Amino acid sequence: MAVYCGASGGKSDGYMQAARAFGQLLAEERIDVIYGGGKVGLMGAVADGALAAGGRVIGIIPRGLFEREVGHTGVTELRVVESMHDRKAMMAELADGIVALPGGYGTLDELCEMITWAQLGLHSKPIALLNHAGYFDPLLAMFDHALAEGFIPPAFRALVMDAPEPGLLLERMRAHTPSNLARWSNGLRG
């Protein structure tokens, strides 16, 4: 499972607790964690939660960020790559599903790229948001606004699911049925 999240812990301890709980749940469910390789913030909490529960954690971090994000040398496997593009490509290749936890621009970039790839038919992996404390409510409202204004067709809006807690999120992801969507350039409407 590719997990995108912040190198910060946020203002509320609840974000860190939710990240640790998600990592722990993935380990208990025997789902490998594939994440950005950092030791700090939500990234570190997800990794540490999974490791504490005996899970397998693969970190992928660009060489230039290894020092700044304090690369997590305690993970099962830490892959140092040359660029952010390499990081995103490797995470996507290794993952069977994509989950975003709270984070900033980097998290949103990774999430939106995976949504776009799904829209283009490059993958059919489930994409989900762990919407702890309603963190992603404004983003989901933006997606709904884009849908209402005709910029996102309903079939593509359905690419992103969310849940407020880890167990429900995994349940929804397991129920995911891969889409056989036409490429956006084929003029899919409504």
Percent of residues in helices comes to 40-55%
* Poorly predicted spans: 182-190
What structural category do the secondary elements indicate? Answer: alpha/beta
Shape: globular
What is the level 1 CATH name? Alpha Beta
Which CATH architecture is right? 3-Layer(aba) Sandwich
Looking across the biggest beta sheet, what order are the strands in? 4-3-2-1-5-6-7
Radius of gyration: 16 Å
By DSSP (H or I, 4+ residues per run), the number of helices equals: 8
Please give the structural blueprint.
Layout: E1 2-4, H1 13-28, E2 33-35, H2 41-52, E3 57-62, H3 63-66, E4 77-81, H4 84-94, E5 98-100, H5 105-119, E6 127-130, H6 137-148, H7 154-157, E7 160-163, H8 166-174
Parallel strand pairs: 1-2, 1-5, 2-3, 3-4, 5-6, 6-7
Helix pairs in contact: 1-2
What does this protein look like?
The protein is 44% helix and 15% strand. The protein is an alpha/beta fold. It has one domain (2-173): Rossmann fold (3-Layer(aba) Sandwich). A seven-stranded parallel β-sheet has the order 4-3-2-1-5-6-7, sandwiched between helices. α5 (105-119) links the parallel β5 and β6 (127-130). The two termini are 30 Å apart.
